[in-house]
Amino acid sequence: MHTVKKPHIGNNVRRLMNALDIKQDTLATGLEISQQQVSRLLQKDTIDDKLLDQIAEIMDVSADAIKNYSEEAMVQFISNDFTITTHDSSNQATYQFQPTFNYADKLLAYMERELKLKDELIESLRKEIEELRHKSPKK
């Protein structure tokens, strides 16, 4: 029996934000919520369709693109060969365009963004813990 793994929509939004270089503050402003609420939203497995439509509009992508996002598909799309065939009376030629990308720089930038997001999340959670400590009754 083959089980279909449902995508983690929050992770998909986060990865697309990274790919499109969209900051959490931008999303927070567009949704009229705090950056901390955006951070919590990105941790959710599922996001309400109406809210997902708003997020998609802010990111200038379709909601389906967010739901169906996968890094493997993006890599496959980028790494496809493009064939151009020209026909004229003298000869016929096929040109293969094989793009070369410096993935190390892109990977480093991606990892730095992920690390920054992780640090922001940790700081946000620390502040939340500290607030809860101050609110809790002391014995």
TrEMBL record:
GO MF terms held by the record: DNA binding
Keyword hit for Coiled coil: yes
Domain HTH cro/C1-type intervals: 13-66
InterPro entries xrefs: Cro/C1-type_HTH, Lambda_DNA-bd_dom_sf
Coiled-coil blocks: 108-135
Domain of life: Bacteria
Keyword annotations from UniProtKB, A to Z: Coiled coil
Pfam families: HTH_3 (PF01381)
Keyword Coiled coil listed: yes
Classification via PROSITE patterns: HTH_CROC1 (PS50943)
SMART domains noted in UniProt: HTH_XRE
Protein name: Helix-turn-helix transcriptional regulator
